[in-house]
Design goal:
Blueprint (H helix, E strand, L loop, with lengths): L6 H19 L7 H15 L13 H12 L5 H8 L3 H4 L4 H8 L1 H10 L12 H11 L6 H15 L6 H21 L3 H15 L1 H13 L1 H21 L4 E7 L2 H11 L10 E7 L6 H15 L1 E2 L5 E2 L12 E6 L5 E8 H8 L1 H6 L12 H14 L5 H12 L3 E5 L5 E5 L4 H8 L1 H5 L1 E6 L2 E3 L11 E5 L16 H33 L5 H11 L4 H10 L10 H4 L13 H9 L5 E4 L8 E3 L11 E6 L2 E6 L5 H7 L4 E6 L7 E10 L4 H12 L3 E10 L2 E10 L2 H12 L4 E7 L2
């Protein structure tokens, strides 16, 4: 139970938070703003007076905290403070949007409407979450502040997630990592993005989080000493050249340390860039670029740079407006250190991306010179042209969040920035839809390339077109940008509709010839006879010659036995309850599973012994490992299709698993490895590849094993082979 606090003490606590908010916002306020904020505060206080949060504290502290984050950490102004204070009023109390509009104006009302969750009926197979995200994102094209206040709201919820029940913690944390962290990153809010990722880890894998946190803390003193020594010569030189500057050390976030450890398969002590040194210059805008390169030259006078690690976002900023010069240099202690060089303006944009960029004149619109504007326009276009389901929409939106980019040029030298892994076909659609739809191929750096050619930085691309060329369904495999996907889908849908019309005409003619009336009953018989699911599909196949019109004969309509309509729903639920039998919530994999279709997920290759869950799809159940890279995505979007699962003891089945070996090369090592595999454990090997280079070898072996136990024994034995330094399982 939370401690009982007197109403007076609570009132003082609320006022303390309110006064702090006003103090923080003071420099940004114009005449009349404090009065408006006070009015919003009083209305929110009144609306939430009976409500408490799960932690027991008065509910009003939540809107106050969200407003505080909006001002202090994102840099928003009065309109946003008012909207943040009132963001839950419409949802939780009888107050209507129209009341807000009357009291506080259209802008605030529109923002709050965007923040109010949609209620109502959702069709099966869509996710309520995805629908809410979609509604919130649709407001992005009107006013970006909706998303920023939503991020502030989510950040405060994550900071106070302790008081939530465990299942809620997991759901909210997964969703945060899935959507809000990438969104914060894309809007340039790096500090918030890092905190959201760390909080995700804190609640989903507390042990690892605490372990890394403790190690970071232990190495703090040594790190500070190291930074001081490293910075000393740079500091002296900058002073002697008369620069106005600030130097600070920035530790890496816990989540990104763990990500690096997993990705490179290294221990905490091997993560070399646990921190970065940042040099921030106070220089006028027109001197920024030259000054950054001058400082780069000073840094590399003292320390040897790694030429592969130079990142120049000063000449070409990232799409979210991030500008900085990064280099990694070798310190005298033999450690790599990342040095980031930027101006004060660039640092503001990096810390408070959005607000520093858009210098809101309280209009909610964006200044045209920002490259973020280009991204928002792309999103706007995507939202307007998108008529896929909410979940497909979420997937496509997330693909647009991840920021890696490729820079290519038109024949006339215009720079086109596309997401990483974009193809020549994406490039064509980016220039113009018409060029995309008639694209034959491309000349990349004067060389002919197919539609599926993946672009590289610096490619110069000339698109070749023909008025005879038309998109085919295969084209969807060649593109990754939302614009290209939606335009191809639109074309294919319209094309199919037009062909279906032709098919309908052909059917009417054929039925006329054989003297059969064209009615629903006869049509159902046709669908069932040819086993086609829908009318449009049947007409389309008829027009394309996949169904031969001449095989439509009178006998189909006159046979006594009625052909069952394929449109009847399958008794799916009944089947499932029959199969799941023993415990309705637990599916046993491997025992009598021939009764339904299940398959092993390719992304994580589970084998007996792994913790697994089932995921329902149209093709049957797919079994994933619980630590599969896609698990977060599936659980946060399709909770209703997840089935708990476990393996039974079984030895007659063999599963494919991958083993990676590294070590020093010697004569006969491959022979020793294969002998252990085939003799000692009766394991069948499907393939082996070994790559040796300069006395070091790396090998990958695909073997058939019964379960994790079997695999672990094999890994143990292989690690004892003379010369083998590392053995690990990998997901093929």
């Amino acid at each position: 139970m939370p401690p009982v606090i007197s109403p007076e003490a609570e009132r003082q606590e609320i006022l303390r938070h309110y006064r702090r908010l006003l103090r923080t916002a003071k420099p940004y306020l114009k005449d009349g703003d404090p009065k408006l904020i006070k009015k919003a505060f009083n209305q929110s206080l009144e609306a939430h007076k009976e409500m408490r949060r799960k932690s027991g504290e008065p509910y009003i502290l939540h809107p106050l905290a969200v407003a505080q984050i909006a001002v202090e950490e994102i840099g928003l102004g009065t309109t946003s403070i008012v909207a943040a204070l009132l963001h839950d009023v419409v949802e939780d109390t009888p107050t209507e949007i129209s009341d807000i509009e009357r009291e506080f104006g259209t802008k605030v009302a529109r923002i709050i409407d965007g923040l109010t969750k949609i209620s109502g009926v959702f069709e099966y197979g869509t996710s309520e979450q995805a629908e809410n995200f979609r509604k919130m994102l649709l407001t992005l094209s009107e006013d970006v502040r909706v998303i920023l206040i939503k991020i502030a709201d989510r950040l405060h919820n994550m900071r106070t997630l302790d008081s939530m029940p465990r299942h809620k913690q997991l759901k909210i944390a997964s969703e945060t990592l899935y959507l809000y962290a990438p969104l914060a990153h894309r809007l340039g809010l790096y500090t918030i993005k890092s905190e959201l990722e760390d909080l995700y880890l804190k609640f989903t894998d507390t042990e690892t989080y605490n372990e890394i946190k403790a190690k970071v803390r232990q190495s703090q003193a040594a790190r500070n000493r190291f930074i001081k020594e490293f910075v000393q010569p740079i500091d002296d030189e900058l002073k002697s050249q008369g620069f106005e500057y600030e130097i600070k050390g920035r530790p890496k976030s816990i989540y990104s340390i763990l990500k690096k450890m997993k990705k490179q398969n290294i221990t905490f002590d091997e993560v070399y860039d646990l921190f970065a040194i940042r040099v921030i210059l106070d220089v006028p805008p027109e001197q920024e670029k030259a000054a950054c390169w001058q400082v780069y030259s000073i840094v590399t006078d003292f320390y040897q740079p790694n030429p592969d690690r130079l990142r120049d976002w000063v000449s070409t900023p990232k799409a979210n407006g991030y500008e900085s010069l990064h280099t990694t240099v070798m310190s005298r202690a033999g450690q790599w250190v990342e040095v980031q060089i930027r101006s004060r303006r660039m640092d503001d944009i990096a810390e408070k991306g959005y607000a520093a960029h858009w210098k809101y004149k309280d209009t909610g619109s964006i200044q045209p010179e920002s490259s973020l504007e280009g991204w928002v326009n792309k999103v706007r276009e995507m939202l307007e042209s998108n008529n896929s389901s909410a979940l497909e929409f979420m997937d496509e939106f997330r693909q647009n969040l991840f920021v890696k980019e490729v820079y290519a040029f038109t024949p006339k030298g215009k720079l086109i920035i596309l997401p990483d892994k974009s193809t020549a076909l994406d490039f064509a659609f980016d220039i113009h839809t018409h060029i995309g739809l008639h694209c034959l191929g491309a000349k990349v750096n004067q060389k002919l390339e197919p539609l599926s050619y993946q672009l590289h930085n610096g490619d110069q691309v000339e698109i070749l077109t023909s008025h005879k060329q038309r998109p085919t369904p295969e084209w969807l495999n060649y593109v990754i940008t939302t614009k290209a996907r939606s335009k191809i889908k639109d074309f294919l849908r319209d094309d199919k509709r037009a062909k279906a019309e032709d098919g309908k005409f052909l059917l009417e003619k054929r039925l006329e010839i054989i003297g059969v009336p064209f009615n629903q009953e006869n049509f159902n018989r046709l669908l069932a006879y040819f086993n086609v699911p829908s009318a449009q599909e049947f007409y389309y196949r008829l027009a394309m010659g996949q169904v031969d019109g001449r095989t439509i004969r009178e006998s189909i309509f006159t046979s006594a036995k009625p052909v069952p309509s394929v449109l009847e729903p399958k008794a799916f639920d009944h089947e499932v309850s029959k199969i799941r039998g023993v415990r309705p919530d637990m599916l046993v994999v491997g025992e009598h599973t021939d009764k339904f279709d299940y398959s092993i997920a390719r992304c994580c290759n589970p084998i007996p012994g792994d913790d697994v869950f089932g995921f329902e799809t149209d093709q049957g159940l797919i079994i994933h490992r619980t630590n599969c890279p896609r698990a977060v995505d599936l659980m946060s979007n399709y909770g209703n299709r997840i089935v708990r699962a476990k393996w039974t003891d079984q030895l007659e089945l063999a599963f494919l698993a991958g083993i990676r070996l590294k070590g020093s090369d010697r004569v006969g090592i491959v022979n020793d490895v294969t002998r252990i595999i085939s003799t000692s454990l009766k394991v069948n090997m499907r393939s082996i590849t070994v790559d040796a280079n300069d006395g070091f070898f790396e090998g990958q072996i695909m073997v058939f094993v019964n379960d994790t136990d079997h695999l672990n024994k094999l890994i143990q034995r292989l690690s004892k082979v003379n010369g083998v330094l590392q053995v690990e399982r990998f997901d093929s």
